[in-house]
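Hey L., structure's done. Input below.
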Amino acid sequence: MEHAEDNVQVIPPNKEKIRRLWTVAGYLAAVTAVEFIIAFTMNHGPLKVAIFVGLTIVKAAYIVGEFMHLRYEVKVLFWSILIPMIFVVWMLVAFVYEGMAIGELRF
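Output:
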């Protein structure tokens, strides 16, 4: 009777995929390092918040493009996901703005 261990095939690692993962990790680490530098060197204000929001969107887009493989899809699928996301962000900004206006009227 054969053991299951006798039929095990060892598949060598795909060096191209590993290199690509390290490249993605490097890009994300670089953007995070820029965020840390900005966090500890800039005064708090609207510019700092805008930079953080922008860098967060860049990181999210890169993660979605690489790990969800959206970057390699047809452009119609890419835009069908990106355009609604832009409107959702716009909606959230509008809600926060309106909420702040209502809050100022109450007090």
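Residues 14-72 form one domain. Residues 91 and 97 are 10 Å apart (CA to CA).

-- N.
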